[in-house]
Description:
Layout: H1 2-26, E1 31-38, H2 41-52, H3 55-58, E2 61-68, H4 71-80, E3 85-88, H5 93-97, E4 102-109, E5 113-118, E6 134-137, H6 142-153, E7 162-165, H7 168-176, E8 182-186, H8 189-197, E9 201-206, E10 217-222, H9 224-229, H10 231-250, H11 252-263, H12 267-271, H13 282-290, H14 293-304, H15 321-327
Parallel strand pairs: 1-2, 1-3, 6-7, 6-8
Antiparallel strand pairs: 3-10, 4-10, 5-8, 5-9
Helix pairs in contact: 2-10, 2-11, 7-8, 10-11, 10-15
Amino acid sequence: MKKVLALVLIALIAITGVFAQGSSESSSGLEKVTVAYMANYASLWSVVGAMNSGAFADQGIEVQLVEFADGPTIIAAMESGSIDVGYIGHGAHKLCVNGQADIFCFSHVGNGDAVIGLKSHGVTDDPASLKGKSIGYASGTSSETILRWTLEEAGLTFDDIVAYEMDASAITSAMTSGALDACASWSPSTFTILNNIGSDAFIISDNVTFSDRSASVASWIVMPEFAEENHDLLVRFTKALYAGMDYRAEHEDEVIGWVAEVLGVDFDTVYAQRGDAQWLTSSELIEDVKDGTVESLYEVQKGSFGSEVDPATPVSDYVLFDVMLEAAE
Length: 329
């Protein structure tokens, strides 16, 4: 009996040892951060560059990427506590102005948004031709913003069109199938639509069209409560992003390949998106923060949202310039 008990005890010790060893080996000892992104180069260039070059590991951080369709959905997930930090495009910044999230790192000024029309459906380069047309857009995103501006150019509103709220993938499918007359979307969906349809599809307007009234800024964001409780983590995360920015500047093709792997697409698909923005290095970004350029960009962006935000809200209320500057030290 004693022999049996001894064998059982030995077995339990062995099992416990296996579990303890497995737990130790599976834990990297790094602080895990769940990171929300969208399926394009603009969202991933710096974070993937930082991940694969070892910059996050150097800062004691392990990144877990989670894909989302758009910025408002990312913010909703952050509010629920399932996401720690996230990337958003221009449209979702109105939620930051309204106090729902804080910006802790500037990413870039983009040119990936566009309104696309079909010639065969009677759409021309005159925005007035959109009157009465069926148009797909993603509510609360840069898609809605650029569509609204395009309509305003012709003295139109959403009441003058047949508007369909869709996510990015649904917009692409409906547009390429001919179910829509026009759409408002962002990269890489814009590339997909133009490539799939061919010469019948054309760009009516893009971010450059409205450069006199808006800066299409993209940013890294966090919940205000998370920022208060995790200042050091955000500084380290931003340091890693800076390293990712600098790595891309020297190894663009390599980073494009890494992004393609994350997205599960070919190299050329991502390569075509490299012109969607001006990709800064960390030194260029910090210079722009220090001389007020970044703050002025957010100020112009805020003004583009009109009555959707309080124009008196100081940019410094929702942009954490101290994190960006401390990360450069």
